[in-house]
Amino acid sequence: MRKLLFLVAAVFTLPAWADCSVGQTSTPQTFDSEKITVGATAVGFTGSKVNGSSTGPSAQRVYCSVETDQIRFLVQAIPTAATGVLVAAGSYFEVCNTDIPRFFAIRVTADATLNCLYQR
Prior knowledge:
Strand order of the largest sheet: 1-7-2-5
Number of helices: 2
Largest sheet: 4 strands, antiparallel
CATH class: Mainly Beta
């Protein structure tokens, strides 16, 4: 029950920039997924998943849940364990459009896992 309340509270307190659907005319379709281990060196999304392929255009939205531990991320620079947007384990976030290939995440204390869905 506590997890459900947290999820509901998180959904209704997201900042406006977290919504990739602004101006979107159709429902996003998930075309791929992956688990990313976030360690002591900053990592981004897998290029082949971000850039599209013969099956369709590139990702317009990446939706990730954070598992096991905190991470920090940035899209305009490389984060460190002390700088960047802090995201707690059990939370989720979205990365949209041109920010997707510029996304980098790093662990805060221990390795974390991101569960990500790629959508277009």
